[in-house]
């Protein structure tokens, strides 16, 4: 029995051991399963976290990209708005500038229409003086002009373009030391013998260069000292030769094409031609010169002057269709050439010649225009006179008006520097007018 009991005890022990081992193995398996579950749960969590992070990063990147796109869109829209505003501003500025320019042009046109046209530039007016000897009052010249000495501008002189009639060469030693190398000869008064001036035969290079660089001598070679002469302003005598008293125009447009040269005064074109009192006959009021009328000719310097030439010089101008309105008629000077026969022929040709083509003088500049320019000017002035009151700046010289060098007719080249019979207008102007 003991064996049975021992066998039972051993079998029970074996069973207990086996159950214990089974329990241990089951416990180990349980723990291993738990560990595996935990690993799987951790891996799942890691995967979820990675997925979340990846999703978050993608969302962040997407939001950043969207923000960048939105920012770029805003910048583009802002630039477009700025460009549009700038374009509108430029267009507005251009429109304003265009309007201002148009207004300025309109104002300029209105000012040009309202204001008269500016007068053309004229040459400086130099008065013409009458020159007399200071001591004996002998009349020397009626073509004097105020001048200065080139090398000493503070010295006042009076020059003329023709040798005075009542003075001639004076062969005396010069009273003062010469300042240049000009070839000159002194001039003495025929009345008292006083040395009144000098005549430049040939200017030196120094004076020629001074004239070329600084001023013009106007071709004057005869100089009179201010201390040796008395001066007066030259005034106009109606009918006086050598003076352009008023501009002339053709009578009508028809005469322009027909070749007619009959002049009419500028008064019809709007120039004031107020008639003055009638002047006395010139032949009854002319001064007496120191010329013997009984002799056929008188030698004066290097020229021969005949009584016929003096009569032609002092004779009144021919009566024309407009001589009754008080304006002076322009008569060219007589060309008095040397020689008796030539003088008579020249005088006869002057007294019986046909009317010359008219010349137009504007603003007193004394410039001779061509006949075509006269016709064009006459046509334009006639048109203005027909449409309304014409504005003219042409000078019309009346009796007693002061004469300027621009009013004198230019002499021919052959007559410049030669002796001429002077005319003292004061002797005529001081006499009472006829008819009063």
Number of strands: 12
How much helical structure, as a percent, in the residues?
Answer: 25-40%
Oligomer status? single chain
Main beta sheet: strand number and arrangement? 8 strands, antiparallel
Overall outline: rod-shaped
pLDDT < 50 runs, ≥5 residues: 252-392
Order of helices and strands: HEEEEEEHEEEHEEEHHHH
Helix count, DSSP H or I runs of 4 or more residues: 7
* Strand line-up across the major sheet: 4-5-6-7-3-2-1-8
Percent strand equals 5-15%
Q: What gyration radius follows from the Cα positions, in whole Å?
A: 58 Å
Give the helix/strand class: alpha+beta
**Distance separating the two termini:** 209 Å
Could you tell me the mean pLDDT? 68
Polypeptide structure, described:
The protein has 436 residues and is an alpha+beta fold. Among the domains are: 129-233, Metal Binding Protein, Guanine Nucleotide Exchange Factor, Chain A; 248-397, no CATH class. Helix content is 39%, strand content 14%. It has helices spanning 2-114, 205-213, 253-258, 307-314, 340-351, 371-387, 425-429; strands spanning 129-133, 139-148, 156-160, 167-170, 183-189, 195-202, 222-225, 229-233, 248-250, 263-265, 297-300, 303-306. The protein has an eight-stranded antiparallel beta sheet with strand order 4-5-6-7-3-2-1-8, with no helix packed on it. It has a two-stranded antiparallel ribbon with strand order 9-10.
